[in-house]
Design brief:
By secondary structure, the protein is of the alpha+beta class. It has three domains: 139 residues, Orthogonal Bundle (Arc Repressor Mutant, subunit A); 75 residues, SH3 type barrels (Roll), CATH 2.30.30; 79 residues, Ferrous iron transport protein A (FeoA) (SH3 type barrels, Roll). The chain has eleven helices and 14 strands. The strands form three sheets. The chain has a six-stranded antiparallel beta sheet with strand order 3-8-4-5-6-7. Helix 4 packs across helix 5. The longest helix is centred in the N-terminal third of the chain and has 23 residues.
Amino acid sequence: MISQQMEEYLEAIGKLQERGQPVTTSALARECGVAAPTVTEMLHRLAGQGLIDYTPRREIALTEAGRSLSSTVIRRHRLWERFLHDVLGLGWDRVHDEACQLEHATSPDLERRLARALGNAATCPHGHAIPAADAGAASTATSLLSDLTPPASARIVSVSEEAPLLRRLAALKLRPGAVVQVTANSPDEGTVTLSTAGVQHTLAHGEAARIAVAPLSAAEERAEQALPLAELAPGATARICGFRAGRGLVGRCLALGFTPGAEVRMVQNAGQGPVIVIVRETRVALGRGEAGRILVSREGEDHAEAG
């Protein structure tokens, strides 16, 4: 019979493998918060159940049966975290401990219903992937925020589940999906300086080491190079690359010739009030609010002309 404690060890092994870390006795002791002799005893029990391949002083590997069970426990844990956060409104710093209790009391039928109710969510609130029902926990190509060499931009993929860290990151609006720019990394001083949405923050190196990030996609790179048309300097040219607007305003913009890829030149921009631009050889006046919702690529700024 597989006990709750055995499931927790399998879950820990799966998470270490997911992060690409060697699964050793000492690593498991740190992950589970227990002494090494306690881990060794459990490893013998798991090996006896055919759930792991274990040889003392060698890296531990899950068997096919162990991998399946590990993935199931991780899946149920993260589904519950998502349910507790999204449906019941618990803070992301509280859901981990609650999910640790619920994961062991979840039947296959309840797991299926839970996933369906959540729209088959892909990640938990901390950004970790929810394994598919018929697959093991997949690893994601990420690096640690603490390892980035400035200047560097990246997207936060996931964060560690320690409650104090989660509360601090929430206050700084550093959640999965946020794009950050690392401007300084000083291991000797123990700090990493970054900015997001134009706001600068300083994290301890240990905090940054608990944040997994991924390179920006091509679309994200383009978005980072975009600015609102309202910020284009007089005489500068740029190309339309998108909108931050509802369907009605987008329709009006398209009708006026502000289509993606179209070149636009700023004629008048006093920093307040309407702006005047030339798009498709037509002079157009826009309210500042409208111009603030049209995005242009920065590459055109290098072709500024005298106004």
